[in-house]
Write a structure and sequence with these properties.
The protein is an alpha+beta fold and 449 residues long. It has 14 helices and 11 strands. The longest helix has 16 residues, at 294-309.
């Protein structure tokens, strides 16, 4: 039996077939006239679930544990990253926590974070898979005039409840016989709420004392692995701390950069989507999400797509109509580079890594290239590949737990050795990372893409 999913930007439906013969799927009506026009021009996207219905359900069972805050969930994340990215996850000797001397940390030093369990661990695993990054979150260090160490971060969860999630578990139905054969298979898997609801805070930009940030990291049940990437002495010498602080204060309290989050990943029409993903699936998911959570969809992509068209307040379906009118395809629209100067309804939009790199621009790290680099096009991988970090291991702090020269940076927390392939290897250049592929497991990129 094969399971097929049929999608337009206006609907998603599915059907299953037992035999290899001609089958017909009937749409009794169109959602609106625009859907008919879209289908006339582009047809209906058809996705074959190659493992059939049962295999598809079992695949979901493989993915859903990524978000479980259990040892089972952690093992699922490690297995996924080993299989799909070639990560090794070798155990570190204890102690897994380093006593950091703040006197050895400087303004601009980069913090790379990799979470491996729970909701953020699962999200980061998928983010790593599609972008090629071996870290899923970032922050940056700042020193004030008194020598106190602070951490600036985009994506810090505050106490304002933004959304409530219910903890779900998959359970097995012991009596599927009351269903038809296919419904019986589906009935084997049910979702039930366990425990109480989980309150998710608002993700914002903050500047907080190092001790507070470090304590939160130690208590984080996502089991974070954290590395400190010190800037190269030549870069540190020209780092304008005053400008960096001014930028950080100007952004403090603003929301995380959801508007342009996916656009740092998508640079090309076809070479950023690991199978079975593709642009057709992306637009289908956007459409479904728009109908279920219209406000969330507007925040995640509608405003950014309007920016690319030079329009305002168009919803997803009007965006599709405008794209069609201009003679470009939706997958081409997705590849238009983000511009750092774009201002969204809630201000400048910066992800965790774009926030740091924009600070670097303000602090003079990129020098004369600043005006020709769009940091909102950078993924975390793009950031740690920049050739701006310390390249002499003998200059690393004495407390730096780098495995007697095993790592070119300081790992300060975590039970597994962190890997950052191609770390500190890429000289900055104009228009960098605006047209780069990112296909696993090699994540090969052309020169100066």
């Amino acid at each position: 039996m094969d399971l097929y999913v049929f999608a337009t930007p206006y609907r998603i439906t599915w059907d299953y077939y037992f035999s290899a013969r001609e089958h017909t799927l009937k749409f009794d009506s169109w959602e609106e006239a625009a859907e008919l026009e879209y289908v006339k021009q582009h047809g209906i996207s058809v996705f074959l679930m190659p493992s059939g219905m049962l295999g598809t359900l079992l695949s979901l069972v493989d993915v859903l544990p990524l978000f479980s805050n259990t040892v089972w969930g952690q093992n699922a994340n490690l297995a996924f990253l080993k299989t799909h990215m070639g990560a090794s996850f070798e155990k570190r000797p204890k102690p897994w926590c380093t006593v950091v001397n703040p006197e050895d940390v400087h303004s601009g030093d980069f913090l790379a974070v990799s979470k491996i369990r729970g909701r953020w661990g699962g999200f980061e695993t998928l983010e790593k898979w599609v972008t090629g990054a071996f870290a899923g979150h970032t922050a940056v260090c700042l020193k004030d005039d008194m020598g106190n160490l602070w951490v600036a971060e985009s994506g810090h969860e505050n106490e304002k409840v933004l959304i409530t999630l219910f903890k779900l578990t998959f359970c097995c139905d012991q009596s599927p016989s009351s269903f038809g054969w296919v419904k019986g298979m589906l009935g084997l898997f049910s979702i039930r709420m366990v425990g109480g609801p989980e309150m998710l805070g608002e993700e914002i930009i903050v500047v907080i004392p190092w001790d507070e940030w470090w304590e939160l990291s130690l208590k984080d049940n996502s089991n974070p692995q954290i590395a400190l990437l010190p800037l190269h002495p030549d870069i540190r010498a020209k780092f304008n701390s005053t400008a960096a602080w001014e930028y950080a204060r100007s952004m403090s309290g603003k929301p995380y950069g959801y508007h342009n989050m996916i656009f740092s990943w998508i640079d090309t029409v076809a070479d950023n989507y690991p199978p079975p993903l593709d642009a057709h699936l992306v637009i289908s998911v956007m459409s479904m999400w728009t109908r279920v959570q219209p406000a969330y969809a507007a925040n995640m992509w509608n405003e950014a797509l309007n920016k690319r068209l030079g329009t305002e307040d168009l919803d997803l379906y009007r965006i599709l109509e405008e794209t069609e009118r201009r003679g470009i395809t939706f997958d081409q629209l997705l590849t238009i580079p983000e511009q750092d100067e774009w201002v969204y309804s809630d201000g400048k939009s910066t992800t965790c890594v774009a926030f740091i790199l924009e600070m670097y621009k303000e602090a003079g790290v990129f020098g004369p290239l600043s005006n020709s680099i769009q940091v909102t096009e950078f993924t975390i991988r793009d950031a740690y590949m920049l050739k701006i970090f310390e390249n002499n291991q003998t200059n690393l702090p004495s407390w730096c737990n780098n495995g007697d020269g095993r790592l070119p940076f300081c790992q300060i927390l975590g039970e597994y050795w962190m890997e950052l392939p191609f770390y500190n290897s890429l000289e900055p250049y104009a228009n960098m990372n605006e047209n780069c592929p990112s296909l696993p497991p090699i994540y090969d990129r052309p020169t100066r893409c």
